[in-house]
Amino acid sequence: MLVEVLIAILVLAVGLLGLIGAFDSARKLNLLSERRTSMAHRAQLEIERLQALPYEQLAMKSSPSHSSEETNPDFYVKEGGTEYQYGAASTEAEKVVLDVNQGKIEPSPSGRKCSEAVGACEWEDGTVNGSVYDFVTWHTDKACAKPVNSYKRLTVVVTAKVPSGGRQPTSVRVSTLIANPKETKKEFEEC
Amino acid sequence: MHSLPMPSPHNQGMIDMRHLTDFKRRLTDEAGFVLPTAMIVLLILTVLIGAAITVASQTSTSTTRDSNTKAALEAAEAGLQTASYRLSKLEPEKSQCVTGTAKASPASGIYCAGSGSEPLGNGASFEYWTSIGLVAGEKCGGETVSTQENTTQRCITSVGSVNGLARRVQERTSSLASPLFQVKGILGYHSVFVENNGILEGEVGTNETLTLKNGVTVERADLGPLGKVEGTSTPKETIKNTAPFEPPPVPIGESATSASSQAGCKPPPEGGEVGPNCDFLITSGADANSGVTFNTATRSLTMGQGASLELKEGVYNFCNFQVSGNNTKLTTVAGGKVEIFIDSALRAGSGCAAPAGKLEFKNGLELIDPNKNALYLQIYVYDGSGGTVELKNNVSGGQFYGTIVAPYSKVAIGNNAEFVGAIEANEVELAPNFRFKFEKEVNKLKTPSRLYERKAWEECPPAYIGTNFQEGC
Question: Per-residue pLDDT tens for A105-148?
């Protein structure tokens, strides 16, 4: 009888440990999903906010800086801050749109709340928070014979801050193109 | 040999009692019960673990899907923007649309072939389809199209894809119609030169130099970013624009083709491209003895000494139009609008041979407009190949009601007659004592812009069958 009880306890203990482990993994996965959902939501909000800006204001206020950390979206800013790699391949890089006078897009999120500023900022959504990075680059249309600045590409990268030991979600990256609604005849002819 | 004793009814009852007692004892005995119970609990736990992992995994998949569909929507939007840009750049005719990077005509229906998948980076791509000019009653962007004058409406459908997930959007886009006269008065893209004592009631605009000699009155100077005012007179007001003035397209359309009959001869529209010309009305109406000569082969119209001509309502296209004799009279018909195009030998399909493109009204021409409205005489000069456009020495005290659009020519006007209407040219030179009055009616004239503007938008279900990308929109 005693042996039987001991074996049962052992079996239950193993089962419970497995259950605890599984629930913990599920909790972590759910937490990661929650973070990624918030990040995707934030990315969409940000790109819609940028799309609402006048075309001429869609420009970086100052050059973004390159970061040596691979997890930092600024890692994809080329040395010198004049180019940004929007895609996975190193050839997928474009010139940064820089306009110190009319540009509205701040390059660094530090100390800037998204609710208060346009451009790179720090965001918070319930228990999740992180940073938003915006990049505006010149895109050359396929119909252009020469490499000219046809229209602009907006790339929004959202990252989340995770307490130490937590699993870092991969950044969410959304990109679109915006054509100039007032493109001049000369600009079309240059293309 | 012993035989087994046959159970008597008494013995049989004792056996049954023993089995019952044994069963009761086994029921109350707990030995061997714990382990099966533990196994059952373990089984339940395993099911719970499985459920928890499945839910978490599904949540994760759904999150990834959510991210991808959001990115796919932006990719589809990028397709709409790209298509709009190419429509503006390539300027297809109303009967054409754009494919990837070229103008084309649809093989059937109203849509051209798709652009093909174009990568956007990070696994995103888009493909779009554009339509020819829509007509009233067709549907796009969730709305039924209604006719709008001087504009071309088109439908663009775009599919954005990210990691196998797609979003499909559709927009109705319309070319913008802007006022033909960017300045409410006189505009010289290169320069405007006003001689002494000119009185200009309206704006005068230029991208470069506005010269005002002694005693000139100008209500307002409207300058491009590099524009400047020179001379000894000063405008009452000066404004500077951030963008230079750009010449409008000359809406010459099909005007080089003869309408041949009255039925094909349509009244000119208020802006936009025009149909066939009514030049044959001159041939049949002109009296050779009156000094009017119209050469149908060269489409050259000349008015000599004492010539008199009445232009009926319609569009006219001449390779040259010269009035050089004294005491000439050019009359536009009462209640009828007249639109004159001076074509060029340099334009493909013009039918003009060099020398062409000449417009001269000289030596005492009396322009008679019974309508007293600048909208009723519109003159367009296609390019500068015919040299300076001259409207000089008209009858003293007379009035010229009309508009002149010659964006690549020099226009020299004077003397005597008062000009009521609007002028756009490359260079404008106004003789001493020139009097001008801007006619507000000309604001009705529009020019179709190459730029397109979104008018309606809808999202369609992402899936469609085969190549029917319109399905479900």
Answer: 999 898 899 888 788 999 998 888 999 999 999 999 988 888 88
Q: What is the pLDDT of residue A140?
A: 93
DSSP B353-371: -SS--EEEE-SSEEEE-TT
- At A91, the pLDDT band (50, 70, 90 cuts) reads confident
Q: With CA atoms as reference, report the closest residue to B75 among B151, B154, B166, B150.
A: B166
Strands (E), B84-130: 97-98, 103-104, 118-121, 124-130
**In which element (H, E) is residue A130 found?**
strand A128-139
Nearest CA in chain B to A172: B67
* Closest CB from B38, B75, B119 relative to A12: B38
Tell me if A81 sits within 8 A of A60, measured CB to CB.
Answer: no
pLDDT of residue B255: 93
Q: What is the DSSP letter of B303?
A: E
- pLDDT averaged over 10-residue windows placed end to end, chain B, 473 residues: 55 71 69 81 87 88 92 96 93 90 91 93 94 92 83 93 94 88 96 94 96 95 96 95 88 90 84 84 67 90 88 94 87 92 95 94 84 93 94 73 95 84 96 92 85 92 82 84
Q: What whole-number distance in Å separates Cα of residue A143 and Cα of residue B111?
A: 19
Residue of A1, A55, A177 to mutate for B, most B C-beta atoms under 10 A: A177
| 3-state secondary structure (DSSP) of residue A19 | helix
- Provide the 8-state DSSP code for A166: S
pLDDT at B229: 96
- Residues in B touching A5 (Cβ below 8 Å): 34
* The model's pTM: 0.73
With beta carbons under 8 A apart, name residues in chain B contacting A173.
71, 122
Largest CA distance in chain A: 95
| Cα Rg of chain A, angstroms | 23
Tally of CA atoms within 13 A in the half-sphere of B264 that contains its CB: 15
The pLDDT value recorded for residue A141 is 93
Closest Cα in chain A, distance from residue B45 (Å): 7
Interchain contact, B39 vs A87, CB within 8 Å:
no
Tell me the sheet residues that pair with B300: B295, B320
> DSSP strand E in B116-244: where?
118-121, 124-130, 139-140, 143-144, 153-162, 165-179, 185-194, 199-206, 209-212, 217-223, 228-231, 238-240
What is the spatial distance between Cα B290 and Cα B287, in angstroms, rounded to a whole number?
5
Residue in B29, B44, B63, B450 to test binding to A, most A beta-carbons within 10 Å: B63
Residue whose token pair is 């800037």: A112
Cβ–Cβ < 8 Å for B170, B473 = yes
Report the distance separating Cα B218 and Cα B230, nearest Å: 13
d(CA B200, CA B233): 12
Give the pLDDT score at B1. Answer: 45
Cβ pair A1:B30 closer than 8 A: yes
